[in-house]
Amino acid sequence: QFDNSRCLEALGAGVGLQDPLPKISWQQLALAISRCLSNKAMRAEARKASFKLQGESGVHLAARIVDDFMKKEVATGKWKASFTQIRGKPMGRQVSKGSSTSDTREAM
Q1: d(CA 48, CA 57)
Q2: Cβ atoms of 32 and 17 closer than 8 Å
Q3: Which pLDDT value is given to residue 105?
Q4: Is the dihedral of CA 57, 58, 63, 65 positive or negative?
Q5: Which CA distances in Å does 93 have to 80, 89, 99, 103?
Q6: In 3D, which of 22, 3, 6 has the Cα closest to residue 14?
Q7: pLDDT tens-digit profile of 75-108?
Q8: Are the beta carbons of 12 and 42 closer than 8 angstroms?
């Protein structure tokens, strides 16, 4: 919520609020909406941002990001090394190369 708010505010396409929505008054929200609707430049920037977002396929972008992470970080061992350095050895069952998950369970 706050990251999106900051991005829109930085683009000049919206007004950011400092508190989470449940903690702001209806008057604060009404003022923020009025500021957005009455500012012609802000409306134009919001329209540009809207068209750009509509042109992106969020599902495809998310799938590509996950796929890239799996290929570049997980498959190469970079993620595990980084995780181990920060948090210690990962917990859970370890599967050795050449064994399947069922082989590991039977050995336990």
Answers
A1: 16
A2: yes
A3: 44
A4: positive
A5: 14, 11, 12, 12
A6: 6
A7: 999 999 998 888 887 676 665 555 554 444 444 4
A8: yes
In eight-state DSSP terms, residue 108 is: -
For 6-50, the pLDDT digits (tens) are: 888 999 999 988 888 899 999 999 999 999 999 999 999 999 999
Residue in this structure with the two tokens 């495809």, named with its chain if needed: 60
Give the Cα separation of 83 and 7 in Å (integer): 29
List CB contacts of 29: < 8 A, sequence separation 6 or more. 17, 21
Cα 106 from chain centroid? 39
DSSP 91: P
Is-contact 35 45, C-beta < 8 A?
no
Q: What is the pLDDT of residue 75?
A: 95
Q: Which amino acid is at 9?
A: E
Q: What is the C-alpha to C-alpha distance for residues 33 and 11, in angstroms, rounded to an integer? A: 16
Residue type, 74: V
CA 95 – CA 25 distance, rounded (Å): 53
